[in-house]
Amino acid sequence: MNKLFSLFRNERGIQVDAYYVQGESPKLSTYYPFIRFINKPVMIYYFVNPLCKQCWSVEVAIKKLTMKYGTFFNLRPIISHSFTHPFQQNGKQLSQWHHYHLSVGIKAAGLQGNKAGRDFLRNIQETIFLYESSASVIDIIHQAAKHSGLDMHEFQKDLYSDVAIKAYQGDIQLIQEMDVNQFPTFVFSSQHIEDHSIKVSGSQSYETYEYVLKKMLKVKPKTFQQNIPPLEVYLSNFPRVRADEIAFIYITIKEAIKKLKKLQLKRKMKKVDINNKTVWEYQRK
């Protein structure tokens, strides 16, 4: 894969890595059931360390970008972990084997579909960063698989299969080829303009990702507010939320809490206080 590096600054003064990548990007299915992905002009490679708190924090920006501009891009998570920054779980350092096992688990979940892999990754992150679980890594993996609605028999086979391991090794190779050394990192790659990509390293604001997407498209896309689903549809797909997340995507924090409380009265939402944080859980029938 040939690469030519350059830099540019946008009108906000934010420096963004930009480089050109030779090679055809794979076409992937939707991660979100309420967005149609057909002949998208942009592929976004999302380099994520599942044990990186910044990667967890940027998830809400990914959701908003997808719902506003989902008709323009596909998203492909590339899984890695850091050997140089050990992760502490409730004061205990996780071994490199645990890091590796989580990463391969995400690839194994992805064998049941791209949405399954994304849901599994999100459940892993929620368990660790939201619920601050002290469960073992093996238990966290199996809990995430159940919460993601995976076929447990197939997942158990895939978890130790050569297919999942090779998929993870392919992600590591892509990380090296694209010179990714920060997580999260996003590479916006044109599906129609040969050898053109823009790399955004580190956690950035939602506005930065939106700006780069528009830069890749060469034209200012319409804001597809009609693609943002009703709140209850959103909650059925992302059943554990915070009020500030709903406010970020939809409305003000005051209005978000009001709507969540109304759903609570209808017994559609459950308010849970966890580690000094308020989480709202959607109650599926």
Q: How many distinct beta strands?
A: 11
CATH architecture of the largest domain: 3-Layer(aba) Sandwich
Structural category is alpha+beta
Overall spatial form: globular
Beta-strand percent range: 15-25%
Number of domains: 2
Question: The biggest beta sheet, please?
Answer: 6 strands, mixed
Order of strands, main sheet, comes to: 1-2-8-7-3-4
Q: Summarize the amount of helix as a percent range.
A: 40-55%
Query: Stretches where pLDDT falls below 50 for ≥5 residues?
Result: 1-37
- Give the H and E element order: EEEHHEEEHHHHHEEHHEHHEE
Radius of gyration: 19 Å
Q: Which CATH C-level class of the largest domain is it?
A: Alpha Beta
CATH topology name of the largest domain, in short, is: Glutaredoxin
The CATH superfamily of the largest domain is known as Glutaredoxin
Average predicted confidence as pLDDT: 77
Number of helices: 11
Provide the descriptors you would attach to this structure in a database record.
2 domains; alpha+beta; Glutaredoxin; 20% strand; Arc Repressor Mutant, subunit A; six-stranded mixed β-sheet; globular; 285 residues
How would you sum up this structure, described in words?
By secondary structure, this protein is an alpha+beta fold. The chain has two domains: 3-217, Glutaredoxin, CATH 3.40.30; 229-282, Arc Repressor Mutant, subunit A, CATH 1.10.10. It has helices spanning 53-57, 59-69, 96-110, 114-130, 137-147, 152-159, 162-177, 206-217, 231-237, 243-249, 253-265, and strands at 3-9, 15-21, 42-48, 73-79, 88-89, 92-93, 185-190, 197-201, 240-241, 269-274, 277-282. The strands form three sheets. It has a six-stranded mixed β-sheet with strand order 1-2-8-7-3-4. Strands 9-11-10 form a three-stranded antiparallel β-sheet. A two-stranded antiparallel ribbon has the order 5-6. Strand 1 (3-9) and strand 2 form a beta hairpin. Helix 3 packs parallel to helix 5 (137-147), helix 3 packs across helix 7 and helix 4 (114-130) crosses helix 5.
